[in-house]
Amino acid sequence: MSSVPGGKPLPVRKPLPYRRVTVLGAAGGIGQPLSMLLKLNPLVSKLSLYDIAGTPGVATDLSHINTRTEVHGFAGDDQLKDALKDADLVIIPAGVPRKPGMTRDELFDINAGIVKKLVQAIAKHCPFALINMISNPVNSTVPIAAEVLKVEGTYDHTRLFGVTTLDVVRARTFYAKAKNLPIEDVDVPVVGGHAGKTILPLFSQATPQVPLSKEEVEELTRKTQDGGTEVVQAKAGKGSATLSMAYAAALFAESCLKAMNGEPNIIGCAYVGSSVTDYPFFASKVELGKHGMVKALELGPISKYEQTCLDEMKDELMGSIDKGVAYVHNTESEKIIESLK
């Protein structure tokens, strides 16, 4: 035990567990600020940054920051294996962002293939890692990841998370601003999915609880649902919600790492495979533990308006889920047919 001159002995700090985090898509608009936030997090021991190009430069830049986290850059298909080696947590912001005028189908077609390839590599090289999926459309990419992992024989629904924390961050911000509340004291659970009307902030369960008029609830709900579109329009086609998404992803990653390290009572919202509703995938509060999700929490009492919104999202959410599942099975069937030619 060390001490200061003339003072009391200083307590010996318990060393933090060695945790390896990999970011797939680390050179992109979300990946770079997310990687910086992870470099600043003392819970991250080793940070592996992967992208098709550019990551050695990002890694070198970040490595000059004086924190305990080791940073390594990997680029190209032949280095994906090394980027994933021994990872405890894999975060996937890879893919293209939504641009003005881009349809969801167009976004899906590009990102689905990227996600499938990366998740296949995870199944092979770090099958027990927790996966935090950021790549949009999350309502479909999480089901894609689940089906890929099933094909590879490594699926465990407690280790796969769609990161919906940005919806929570927005709901907290808008609620606090609307009611002049200290932002650090505010929490608003957000359930459903991670696109448009599938995003359902439960202001009836917000803390602290402040009366809201029907018009205020509807406006805050709409603003939370349209947050991504607002940023895309404000950036005039030159970007999407990269910085706020990076912040939100870093928050959820920290929750995962704290839970892995044995910290109790870690609760957050995420889009997961669960039986909380009739949907095979649904965003709700989840309890995190050493090996992933301990359980998805029940919705609890919700308002009549929230129940209506929940009912109205059904077709869109199930359509997105079914589309993700079908994509994997269709591409696997094509692969089998091609092999028989």
TrEMBL record:
Give the source's domain of life in one word: Eukaryota
Sites where the protein binds substrate: R98, R104, N136, R170
Catalytic residues, per the record, are H194
Residues in Lactate/malate dehydrogenase N-terminal domain copies: 20-162
A GO CC annotation given for this chain: mitochondrion
| UniProt-listed GO biological process terms | malate metabolic process; tricarboxylic acid cycle
Q: Which Pfam families match?
A: Ldh_1_C, Ldh_1_N
Q: Where does NAD(+) bind?
A: G25, A26, A27, G28, G29, I30, G31, D51, N111, I134, S135, N136, M245
Under the subunit heading, UniProt states: Homodimer.
Q: What is this protein called?
A: Malate dehydrogenase
* Organism per entry: Selaginella moellendorffii (Spikemoss)
